[in-house]
Amino acid sequence: MAQPAPQSQSEMRQRNLSRVLHTLADGGPLSRAAVAARIGLTRAAVSTLVDELLRGGLLVEQGPGRSGAVGRPGTQLLLTDRGPCGVGAEIGVDHLAVCVMDLRGETRVRVTHETRNQHSDPTAVLALLTSMLRRATAEAATAGLRPAGLTVAVPGLVNRGSTTVLRAPNLGWHGTDLAALLPDDLGPVTVENEANLGALAELWSGHHAPPLSGPDSFVHVSAEIGIGAALVVDGELLRGAHGFAGELGHLPVRPDGRPCSCGGRGCLETYAGEEAVLRAAGLEPGPGVRIGALAARCEAGEPTALRAVRQAGTALGIALSGAVNLLDPRQVVIGGALARLAPWLLPPVGRELARRTSVATGGRSTPVPVTASPLGPDGPLLGAARSAVRAALDAPGELLRD
Amino acid sequence: MAQPAPQSQSEMRQRNLSRVLHTLADGGPLSRAAVAARIGLTRAAVSTLVDELLRGGLLVEQGPGRSGAVGRPGTQLLLTDRGPCGVGAEIGVDHLAVCVMDLRGETRVRVTHETRNQHSDPTAVLALLTSMLRRATAEAATAGLRPAGLTVAVPGLVNRGSTTVLRAPNLGWHGTDLAALLPDDLGPVTVENEANLGALAELWSGHHAPPLSGPDSFVHVSAEIGIGAALVVDGELLRGAHGFAGELGHLPVRPDGRPCSCGGRGCLETYAGEEAVLRAAGLEPGPGVRIGALAARCEAGEPTALRAVRQAGTALGIALSGAVNLLDPRQVVIGGALARLAPWLLPPVGRELARRTSVATGGRSTPVPVTASPLGPDGPLLGAARSAVRAALDAPGELLRD
DNA sequence: GGTATTTCGTCATGGCCGTTGACAAATTAG
DNA sequence: CTAATTTGTCAACGGCCATGACGAAATACC
């Protein structure tokens, strides 16, 4: 929401159009007067903004609302469920997925495909993804939806603001420009780290702690590539100077401990990474043998698996203590595939956090709350789609161009 | 602050006035045309903005600039060195300081007073500080300067957006509202953690790495209360949800190590905190025996002191590795009193960072640069004064009110 | 030296945009 | 049924920036 200052009046107009759209996206159906009250403009001004958006087909009017309150009831406004939509795509280690979301945030089409993308050829993978995109958008078109932007979630590092994947170790991709291999008729293409998108999905879903004052901030842990964390600060993603922020997996947990592939020693990843935990649980990591298998053993109550997860949780808690002391987030969220392990992971994590973050919580008895994301593995895909939707709502000028 | 801005165009005007002021504050003397080019408005628009600021006495015209370039030379504009000014104050453990800064960023008056503020009475300390403020602003008045805001640096935690010191262990203050004990005729009062202000001073001083692209981001380490770090992300201070961000001192360095007063074990502070380092160097911590004494022994080449600092540096490097992996800052700055130890502290810190942050630097051979702040112990005071100046430049409407 | 060129600052004009104040419409309270 | 309240719209207004032209003041070139 933090947009650049308006410097010309047309920019101000764009920003106000966008504010109307976002207000309706957040607050469900509202009358013109209610929108005006929320964004601090007069009813007359909002009327002209709404007229423009209605003419452009971005809003629809519902019948007069039965409010029960005194006074003339307002006509309820709603974002359209036709017209522009956002497209999200996810490139996972063992699957591809596409999701079409309308401006209201409803998922309208979803296509999934199981594959093995480890050490794969980007051209082949993106050709498959493109055909899935074609199928999904064709189906969306029958519902009157027209793509206004595409966001792709990737398990790797993406250069800030570019569409090039710098490194995706699990895919074996290096310096691959995805925009060149994807359709260009779906609107602007954005490529983003999947952990970041998972965190944004969490932020935008709104089903967590109410924003007491000011925007939200949290640490969102996932474990697709090693152990990644996405940091949301004041409602915005913290990407870092080079786009590499959130490398929780290489926080030193035991400075003289096990050597890590990164060259350091005792990184969190050597204790709580997928491979380390699977081995500790007596499982041989391999294709198909991933966190899901471990969760199954925990559910079965197998002691080796439980001990392995507990130890991983302790290490994760130590690393998260560092993050909490540094960042003072409102909460910590365990998302992605790790969310399945939450029942066994949260207790040791919470224990370490309680021990080690008393200063950062101001000595109060309540440590940072740690929760599991209800979105779980769907986070990155939904975050990608919603990111495309929000980008469209941010630029109403583009959408009104017809 | 969440005031419903009913007049969105006058808000735009205020912003543009502010942009003119900030452009001149950053870029030295500039002509109207140069300002227009920088902020993206037309010369005509900037002319009216500048007229208003000239009439309000915030700008002055210099004679036509001798540029040597073809074309009519522009009349150079400059912020005034009279009229409104910012006042900064610092409450240290063993000193008080006040600084008056004009809109150009020049320090015009500075008053320092040595005291012992450990476990002191806030009322007495602030009475003394008030008399210093009176003296400084009286002297500033003879130069035509009129205070437009006061920012106070304190070695403790301040609630976000309030003027109340939650906890300042070294001062022995708890829940003290400073605004009630300070003069109210110096403009709005702001209270801020001194580590944060030191970092902002560093950010605004501009004498570090050139901003290659986008705003700056760095981790700024100081050591007044334990070990504090201030985090600057995208040119803004990261304060945390409760205002407690930057507690570097309690990052776990050796999770089963020495017990810490915070209740945790192996916190950085137990290895690199002032008290721990002094003891390791064979010094008995006490009033007057602080980091300065240690630096003197290092300069003398005393082996025990050198070893103590080297070990502290290693611990600091481990903790900073965590911070760098999480935040991906452009650089790390050692500031405050710690800057005096830089010659002996930087090598071990750099060594640990190089070992442990290869992932966060994208595998490139150049790790995050670590530098010592050239401001050193002056950072917090200068940051406080400049923060007051910038707040004034942000609200030109207030300054033009006469 | 003189003219052309370039750049600066200003002016009048115009368009855009949100505000103000008033009014009809639609509903509830009594 | 009347009064009160709220909604949505309209016309007039004022503020603000863009546009395009102009004179002013310097340099570049002949």
Q: Regions of chain A with pLDDT < 50 over 5+ consecutive residues?
A: 1-6
Separate helix tally of chain A: 12
Kindly name the structural category of chain A. alpha/beta
Question: Span from first to last CA of chain A?
Answer: 25 Å
Question: Would you summarize the structure shown here?
Answer:
2 copies of one chain form a homodimer. Chain A has 12 helices and 15 strands.
What does this protein structure show overall?
Two copies of one chain form a homodimer. Chain A has 402 residues and is an alpha/beta fold. In chain A, 38% of the residues lie in helices and 21% in strands. The first copy, chain A, has twelve helices and 15 strands. Chain A has a five-stranded mixed β-sheet, with helices on both faces. A five-stranded mixed β-sheet of chain A has the order 13-12-11-14-15, sandwiched between helices. In chain A, strands 7-8-9 form a three-stranded antiparallel β-sheet, with no helix packed on it. In chain A, strand 7 and strand 8 form a beta hairpin. In chain A, helix 2 (32-39) packs across helix 3 (43-55), helix 8 crosses helix 9 (303-327) and helix 9 (303-327) packs across helix 10. The longest helix of chain A has 25 residues, at 303-327. The radius of gyration of chain A is 23 Å and the shape is globular. The model of chain A is unreliable at 1-6 (pLDDT under 50). Chains A and B meet through helix 1, strand 12 and helix 9 of A and helix 1, strand 12 and helix 9 of B. Chain B binds a DNA duplex (30 and 30 nucleotides) through residues 6-10, 12-13, 16, 31-33, 41-48, 64, 67-75.
